[in-house]
Write a structure and sequence with these properties.
about 140 residues; alpha+beta; three-stranded mixed β-sheet; three-stranded antiparallel β-sheet; 6 strands; globular
């Protein structure tokens, strides 16, 4: 397999399933107790995608019930947060724990180079959050 991600459909479906499994709904959020959401299931490396916690909120500042949003929009490099990973030259970044989980999934399921895996993890993370945890974006 090369770095272009031209996968047969069954393999692409399996990769998508693995990437979607990185996002989950925390038990605290499922019970409506969003202030107790830990955002990450540290035992399984899963990242909570609850829209009620505003984890996907792009607004600056910290939303109620979430320490760090899944996505962060930085107009300049100076505004980029250490808690997020941004693709080179891009303004939108994903939280580091989500990036680690996606990179690990890509490493296990593809033969991409490390550089391509890291960049693709950011792109896939942004797409996954916008699709699975939408807010008024």
């Amino acid at each position: 397999m090369s770095d272009d991600l031209s996968l047969p459909i069954p393999q692409a479906v399996e990769l998508l399933r693995g990437l979607m499994e990185v996002l989950y709904l925390s038990p605290a959020c499922a019970s409506g107790n969003h202030s107790r959401c830990d955002q990450v299931d540290r035992f399984r490396s899963l990242v909570c995608c609850c829209p009620e916690c505003e984890h996907a909120d792009l607004a600056a500042g910290l939303p109620a019930g979430a320490d760090v949003p899944l996505l962060h929009l930085a107009a300049t490099e100076a505004e980029q947060r250490a808690s997020h990973v941004y693709a080179p030259g891009e303004q939108l970044g994903i939280r580091q724990d989500l990036h680690r989980s996606l990179t690990k999934t890509l490493e296990e399921r593809t033969r991409l180079s490390e550089t391509n895996r890291l960049d693709l993890a950011v792109q896939l993370g942004i797409s996954a959050v916008l699709v699975f945890a939408p807010r008024a974006l």
